[in-house]
Structure formats: C-alpha cells, structure tokens
Amino acid sequence: MKLDQKGQKEECGTSKLIFDRAVKVLPGGVSRNTIYRKPYPYYASSAKGSYIRDISGVNRVDFANNMASLIHGHSHPAIISGVSEQLQKGTAFTMGTEAEVAYAELLINRAPSFEKIRFMNSGSEAVMTMIKASRAYTGKPKIAKAEGAYHGTYDYAEISQTSSPKNWGDINQPNAVPVVQGTPKGILDDVVIYPFNDVERTLNILDQNADQIACVVIDPVPHRIGLFPATDSFIEAIYNWTRKNSALMVFDEVVSFRVNYSGAQQNYDHKPDLTAMAKIIGGGFPIGALAGKSEIMQVMDPRQTFLRHPQSGTFSANPVSSIAGRIAMEMFDEQAVLNLNALTMTARKQIEESIKIADVPISITGEGSMFRLHLLEKAPLYYREAYESKQVKDVLKELIDYLFIKENIIMVNTCSCMFATTLTQKEVDRLSEALLNGFKLIRPKLEQFNH
Ligand SMILES: Cc1ncc(COP(=O)(O)O)c(C=O)c1O
C-alpha cells in the first residue's frame, strides 16, 4: 500500500512547512532521532489525557506516552497545579529545596532495595552514574551488559545495543560492537557482552572476566531486546555470581519501574545493589535517579574525606521535576499500578483475538503496563531470536504508519505500547480494532517470513 504521500500532505501541510524550517537549523530537522519519520515528522500542538492534537488539528490516541515516560498521560491537572505553583517561586537555585527531600523520602519508601537516592536529569545520566558508582565502589574497570539492551547514550552503556548478524559474532562470546563511529577501543575492551536470559553462556563469559567486572547491568524487562522479562533463574544466577566475585548486580529500571509498585525488581527474590530510574518518576519533566545501598551510594557523599565519585548536575533535583514526579508517583499507588496492569492485560487479550481473526503469525511479549508485537508466530525469548531484519522492520513500519495516518493511533516505533492511567476500555477497543485492520493489511507480506 502507498502510505499516502497525498493524504499526508493534505493532513499535515503545516508540519511539512515547519520541517522545511527545521532542517535548516537542526541536523535532520530533529533533536531526537526517535521522532523522525519519512518524509517528515508531524508536529504536536497540544495534548490532554491520552490524546495528542497535531498542528493540523488531527487528534490521535497516544499509546507511546513520550516513550513510556507519562504514566498519567498529558497535562494532568494535579501535576499542572503543583508545577504552576512552583514556577512562581523559582525553578532552579544554587541551593537544595525541600521538594527534593520530600520526593526522595517518597521514593525510598517504595522499594526495599532503596536506602539512599540521588537525582539527576535523564535516564542516560542515571545509568552513567550507576556504572561510575559501581567502579568507584569496587575499584574494578569493566562492566557487563546484555547484547541488544538500550541503556541510554553513555559510551560504555550503549555498546552492542544495535548488534546485528553482520557483527555480533559467536553467541558464546558476543562481540562488543560500537554504536557510534569513533568509539575508542579502550571502551570496547572494558564492556563484556552477555546474552540476556542465557544463564550458562552468561556465567561462562562473566567467569572469563571475573576479577575485573565492577557490575553486571540488567534491565529486567529490556524493551529493545524484545520486551520480555528476565527469568528468575537468570536473576538468581547473576546475583550469586556477583556475590561470589565481589561485583554488583545493578538494574536499569528507567522503563521497567512502572511494572510494579516497587518496579520490576518486585518480581524477583534477589534485589539489585543499585537501581537507575527516570521517565515516569519525572511526572512529565526531565529527571533521572540512582537508588540503592547506603554503603555504595556513600561514594558520592561529599562529607567523605576520600570522595570517590564527586557527582553533580546543574539542574539535578530541580524543584519543578521533583514536585511533578512526587505528585505523579503519589497518584501511581499500589491500586493504580494494579488497575493499569489489568487494563493492559485486557488489551493484550483483545489483540491476541485480533491476531487470531486476522490469522497472522504475530506474537506479543511484555510485562505490567507495556507490550510489544513481534512478527513471529512464537514469542521470542532471546535477543537474537527477536532481532528484526530490514524486511521485518519495513513491514512493521508500514503497520505503524497505517495506525498513525489512517487510524490516528500512536504506538512506539518498535510496535510497542506503553500504557498510561488515562487510557480506558474505549481506547483499548479502538486499538484492537485498528490493529485487526492493520494485520489484515500486512498479512500478504508476512508469508515471506514464516517459510
Ligand atoms: C532502559 C533505558 N535506559 C536508559 C534510557 C535513557 O533514558 P533517557 O532517554 O532519559 O536518557 C532509556 C531511554 O529510552 C531506556 O529505555
């Protein structure tokens, strides 16, 4: 199907005009590559709850929620009110605020593994601080991370995020593959890549670097790998390995914290030493946070005579993000988490039904309030299984474009949904019906992948 150059121009002539200006001042016309779409991205004008209106007046249902960061949808009145009050008082000072302390108290009480917390401005920064704190605490240089996992843009954290059959190497010893041209070799040497959820191979790989690994970084529900959870046995194996080898087990819960009241870590017997968070904990504003054991977090304590990790950030713990985050997380209480997860499960069941009716080889993975569609009959369990070739990506893109342009539905471009508490059964029905139409549309193309 021609995904409507014509329709797109009619609906979004205004976006085209803005994009023409944008390419003159921004590389590729964008400030985040995620939002780029061909031939040009659409521009938002306003949003309320689960609906975003674009600059041409088209209203769409939002299942992406700014890449999983808006747990209560857009422009929540309680957050607007709290933030507006703070705006009158000032937005950032070279002083602490009580807002920061109140929010730290709230988050610390949310998960048993959180004894101390420190705020920063993004998930990337939280993961970076987690890795640096691990090195500072253990005195060791290397980190281990999963092939295919996205942890933001810190040099070490992004290695092998985009590993492909061309460069990923032997599964028993996956290559450390740079994402960015010019990444120094020294960085590749200090990142050990393991295959997520593959206990035996991972332990083997870790053993080969046993005396040098500061931390094993785990996203317990890694979106880019395939959005399936770490198995109990995988977490247990890593926990035991780290205890035996004086290393830390650290979780990136930037996305997965939404899964339960205490994050995805609530699902496991063994808890991380440190946890990086961001996204939903900002209530719609930029934030990052690192929480964990006091003894480890102490590496950042300025009262120490030997300060191992002097950590700072100009806008860290600014009162706007602190207040918005506190209000959002107060509202995302145990009952709200359960309700949201239940609605998401209903959506998954309805989509399973659409898959059956359309008779397409598609599967769903996910956890809590998020899920992802795969053009595979059987849900994948490993990164290399979930890996999408260019042909698969093209078909998924066609589906995403169809939903966006024809059905006015926004999903994350990996064909994932990240739910918000503002969604209701009405939007879920719309999603499963739109997907049914979309599945029928792409069905002829799917035959090529399942022979
Ligand atoms: C699991 C994970 N970690 C870290 C990050 C980086 O967060 P930010 O974009 O706030 O830097 C992301 C962003 O999508 C993420 O998905």
Helical stretch tally: 15
Residue stretches low in confidence (pLDDT < 50, at least 5 long) are 1-10
The tally of beta strands, per DSSP, is: 14
Helix and strand sequence: HEEEHHHEHEHHEHEHEEEHHHEEHHEEH
| Beginning-to-end CA distance, first to last residue | 23 Å
Largest sheet: 7 strands, mixed
**Helical coverage, percent range:** 25-40%
Molecules bound to protein: pyridoxal-5'-phosphate
Mean pLDDT across the residues is: 96
**What spatial form do the alpha-carbon principal axes imply?**
globular
Which strand order does the major sheet show? 4-10-9-8-7-5-6
Q: Determine the strand fraction and express it as a percent band.
A: 5-15%
- Radius of gyration using CA atoms only: 22 Å
Which structural category do the helix and sheet elements fall into?
alpha/beta
Structural key phrases:
binds pyridoxal-5'-phosphate, 451 residues, alpha/beta, disordered N terminus, single chain, four-stranded mixed beta sheet, seven-stranded mixed beta sheet, 15 helices, globular
Helix and strand layout, with pairings?
Elements: H1 5-25, E1 44-48, E2 51-54, E3 59-62, H2 65-68, H3 77-89, H4 98-108, E4 116-120, H5 123-138, E5 142-146, H6 155-158, H7 185-189, E6 191-194, H8 199-207, E7 213-218, H9 232-244, E8 248-252, E9 274-278, E10 288-292, H10 294-297, H11 319-331, H12 334-358, E11 363-367, E12 370-374, H13 383-386, H14 390-405, E13 409-410, E14 416-418, H15 425-446
Parallel strand pairs: 3-13, 5-6, 5-7, 7-8, 8-9
Antiparallel strand pairs: 1-2, 2-3, 4-10, 9-10, 11-12, 12-14
Helix pairs in contact: 3-11, 4-11, 12-15, 14-15
The structure holds pyridoxal-5'-phosphate.
Pyridoxal-5'-phosphate binds at residues 67, 122-124, 127, 150-152, 219, 223, 252, 254-255, 278.
